[in-house]
Amino acid sequence: MLGVAGVSVIGRKRAAARMAGAAACAVALLVPQAPPAAAAAAADSGGGGELRPEQWGMDAVGAAEAADRNDGGGVLVALLGGGVDASHPDLGDGFTEGDAFAAGSGSAGGATPLAGIIAGRGHGREYTGGVVGVAPGADLLSVRVADGGEAAPDALNEGIRYAVDEGAQVLLLSAGAASAEPDEAVAAALGYANRSGALVVAPAGKGGSAYPGAYEGATAVGAVGEDLALTADSPASGVDLVAPGTGIRAPEAGGGYTTVGGTAAAAAFVAGAAVLVRAEHPQLRPAEVADALTAGTREGAAGAQAPGYGAGVLDAPAAMERAASSAEGQPLFDESLADQPREEAPGPPVWALWTAGVLLAVLAGLVVVLLFRRAGANPYDLPSRRSGRERGRGGAEGRENREERDDREPAGAEARSGGRRAPAGRRRGGRRRR
């Protein structure tokens, strides 16, 4: 049997074990655990096990700083391209699959990386995984106008007008109709978008593939690498400004991530920055938004005013500052028009009322006359009952008159008889004639 000392030792050991277990539980509660969504993001990142893919382009344009001021909430941006995979976790809510105007029935999803650059929302706890775009609070409308290649002019025309009618304030023509000559219908659609208050952004093209970036009313975007030098596919002219366009990590259709580049990816950065400006200053017109984007640029690798750079490299915070200067003093709406009483539509002049009244009176008189004549007319010359009765009475009276004339006495007879006349129907001798 154990003595008192043995029991005391065992008690102390049990107490120590309980204290160690409690400490382990406390440590487990205090150390944050990776959420399942973040673990899925790490698996999706495709190498390196990082929760968020490296996004040098977002840092280059100052996207996080600009989004802290306004994340683009309340602005609808339309992406006209090869369609978007809405099931990707980085897109989340705020995405709408619009109508498709592509001639074929190819699988959609080619524009998914551009959608992530514009309005990626990330995923996981506190958005620690995935891609966060330039304007993560914006609403995205996907309009499919192509099936993996260039868009037909008819599809682009219809897609632009559809996006504008749906309320899009910024349009990105990621899949343009590359041609040496502009299409009249597409040019008219861009004019319709500008007049409706929508800014159109398009990739800049080379030579015979200059459109849609070369259309009047479209902001043409070139591309630069991490060293801010022009990429090989970025043209040396016809560019309004440039943005990151090489090694851009972005969501991929079907899940996971991919690396994209080119002027289309650069145009997506500019479209996202345009959304931020529109959300911060909705009273600005499309041309004023474009001016703020170009005025708020910085120098590229070749220095200021270098060929192919346009105004310079996109700088989202500087663009918002320029927009604030342009919007200073401009109300969100015209207060004078809002306070002005509503005017009633002017009525017709007095002479017109008098003329109409006279014409109505004349027409009414003509109608009465026609009805009266119609009521008294006998177009078929049919005998009426009244006329028959009158003719019958007239014949009887004629016979009576003739009989009376026959029964009259010769002239002077009345005088000889003392002025008396024989009753009608009787002979002078008193005998009745048969």
From TrEMBL:
Residues 423-434 have a biased composition (Basic residues). PANTHER family: CEREVISIN-RELATED, PEPTIDASE S8. Belongs to the peptidase S8 family. It comes from the Bacteria. Keywords: Hydrolase, Membrane, Protease, Serine protease, Signal, Transmembrane, Transmembrane helix. It comes from Streptomonospora wellingtoniae. Residues 72-311 form the Peptidase S8/S53 domain. Residues 1-39 form the signal peptide. The chain crosses the membrane at residues 351-372. The keyword Membrane applies. Residues 412-422 have a biased composition (Low complexity). Residues 383-411 have a biased composition (Basic and acidic residues). Residues 380-434 are annotated as: Disordered. PROSITE patterns: SUBTILASE. This is S8 family serine peptidase.
